[in-house]
Amino acid sequence: MSSRIENQALPDADPLNPAPIHLDHELSRENVDALGDSASAGKPLFNSMFTLALLVGMSVPESTHGTTVANLGFSEVLFPRPVYPGDTLRAETEVLDRRESRSRPTQGIVTFRHVAYNQRGEVVCTATRQALMKRRP
Q1: 2 — pLDDT class (breaks 50, 70, 90)
Q2: What is the spatial distance between Cα 70 and Cα 94, in angstroms, rounded to a whole number?
Q3: Which of 34, 53, 111, 133 falls between 20 and 30 A from 74, CA-CA?
């Protein structure tokens, strides 16, 4: 199973993270060369933890809505390209593995691979997630 969600536009700022790299346009212009990313045009970076949460959240309606019991953990979380306010993201999710739970006969453990792309088709976030899921009756 895989799912694909299109076009989630990002807000201009993250009020929950006051770090200058997320809010200060002047600092961001200074960092353009350091990041080697001409697409930024000196914009502050979007918070990477919010990017990860958005990636997983975008996958829920198409893949796990109403069936997730608990998230068990994440591995291999990468942010290969920066994300900026105003970017538009799309997400793809693939099931890598699934197995029955040894201790919960009505549930199973599923391993997902989530990938987020920006409007230029560049990968901006990847994550592998394990979740405890309801099994079909």
Answers
A1: very low
A2: 18
A3: 34
